[in-house]
Amino acid sequence: MLKKYFIKTFGCQMNVYDSSRIADMLKKEGYEETAKQQEADIVIFNTCHIREKAAEKLFSDLGRAHIIEQERAESGKRTIIGVVGCVVQAQDDQIMKRAPFVDFAVGPLMYHKITEILQQINHRKEHENFVLTDFPAISKFDFLPENKSQGACSYLAIQEGCNNFCTYCVVPYTRGAEYSRPVKDVLTEAKRLLATGTLEINVLGQNVNSYHGEDENGKERDLAYLLNRLAELDGLKRLRYTTSYPADMNDDLIACHKNLRVLMPYLHLPVQSGSDRILKAMNRRHNSADYLKIIEKLYKANPDLRMSSDFIVGFPGETDEDFTATLDVVNQVKYIQAFSFKYSRRPGTPAAVMENQVEEKVKKERLEILQNLLFDYQEKFNKSCIGQTMPVLFEQKGRHKGQLIGRTPYMQNLHIETKRDNMNKIVDVVVTEATTNSLSGREV
User: How far apart are CA 98 and CA 81, in angstroms?
Assistant: First the structure.
């Protein structure tokens, strides 16, 4: 009987990519995936440390996994429990203290060692924890197996780490300094994904538009160059990139939104706050005027382009005036989607020890006001799409027979009822209904 693995992923799209690569490694070792944790011989939690709740949720999940491990042991089945990702990098000692039954804990730059660790676990004579949190000089990408498309949309990591050191963020401490993969390696992986069924590629990085990988001649290239090379590949129908940093949006990259047909008219560009004072305290390398000027250039390059963003409310020292400035930016840009959060202290970051921490009640009130405004613009945009014909990439089945769910060029979820085999295909759909969170339509 084949052994089975179960992976639960928290957090960002980079973690989704990492989990898929861990799965590739396990499959190469003869494991098959299961959606039921009770069936799994290996249980892995891929963690995020950006929000406090995500870290605490890990320990709840670990507690449940330990109960399942004990139940399986009673019937003679062995379970290996592992934790990977950013929480390990930040709190490996806490993991082993609070959950000593964990077999291995591996940071986000070391998960290529998992199969080697499993061999050591299988040969150990008594319980021993394996912890790896190094920042290796050699890229983990050099050790990963070749991956194949798992559907019509694929993530492709091209850059990792961050050098910006925003005062609220743990990424530079958990993912390390910026590293960019060589152009040749990215193109090779992209070609393989396209050859095995991918239609849409979303290139990823913690700060993706700081990409500076070397080309075949050893010359350092930026993201605009890479997007142009990717756009030339046969079979690529859609291209996206995330997540971008405003100060790294250069004119060549903005021009891509005018010149590249496959580049989707949707861009996630986090502003975090509309207050220049708060942006300075966050150590962001832009102010609100800089940001709005970039948006103006993007809209001029492609009038069909629409934006999404990230917001943090209640950052230390944020006043009512600062918060109003954030609302002003929202009203100027009119985001069609956004992620918004209350500021959450992360140990080891400068903001965690700043004075004038905002009361939880105030943060909650401001978040509600902001989200209501964001949802209003999102709903207005969705309803403006009624009657339009949109190309939709269908990626998953709905709750009942004949229902498919896909994404428009603007990353909206859209569902249809159909008798056709449209899975993993791009289909023209007329939008018939719209809510704040999704669209409905019918095939043309």
Answer: 14
Q: 156 is written with which tokens?
A: 């492709």
Structure token pair of residue 169: 């963020």
Please list, residue by residue across 165-179, b when 16 or more beta carbons sit within 10 angstroms of its beta carbon and e when fewer do: ebbbbbbbbbbbebb
Residue 441 to residues 356, 405, 425, 431, 432: CA-CA distances in angstroms?
49, 10, 15, 4, 5
Backbone angles phi, psi at 352, to 5 degrees: -65, -25
| 26: helix, strand or coil | helix
Instruction: Flag whether pLDDT at 366 surpasses 90.
Output: yes
Residue 351 — very low, low, confident or very high, per pLDDT cuts 50/70/90?
very high
Amino acid at 227: L
How big is the CA angle at 17 (ends 178 and 128), to the nearest 5 degrees? 90
CB atoms within 10 A of CB 250: 13
Q: What is the pLDDT of residues 151-207, one digit of tens each?
A: 899 999 999 889 999 999 988 888 888 999 999 999 999 999 999 999 999 999 999
Identify the three-state secondary structure at position 79.
coil
Pairing of strands 337-342, 238-242: unpaired
Answer whether 427's CB lies under 8 Å from 443's CB: yes
3-class DSSP assignment, residue 364:
helix
Q: Is the pLDDT of residue 137 over 60?
A: no
Cα–Cα distance between 406 and 403 in angstroms, integer? 10
Per-residue pLDDT reduced to its tens digit, 247-305:
999 999 999 999 999 999 999 999 999 999 999 999 999 999 999 999 999 999 999 99
Listed in sequence order, the residues at least 6 apart from 344 whose beta carbon sits closer than 8 Å to its beta carbon are 51, 52, 53
- Cβ neighbours around 36 below 10 Å, total: 9
Q: Which of 265, 382, 376, 267 is nearest to 330 (CA)?
A: 376
The most distant pair of C-alpha atoms in the chain lies apart, rounded to whole Å, by 66
Domains in the chain with CATH codes: 4-132 (3.40.50.12160), 140-384 (3.80.30.20), 389-443 (2.40.50.140)
Bridge partners (DSSP) listed for residue 307: 267
pTM confidence score: 0.86
- From the CA atom positions of the chain, what is the Rg in Å? 23
The pLDDT tens digits of the residues spanning 50-99 come to: 666 666 788 899 999 999 999 999 999 999 999 998 888 877 778 888 88
Cis peptide before 243 (omega within 30 of 0): yes
The number of beta carbons lying within 10 Å of the beta carbon of residue 29 is 14
The whole-angstrom separation of Cα 33 and Cα 284 is 41
Given a cut of 80, whether residue 1 has pLDDT beyond it is: no
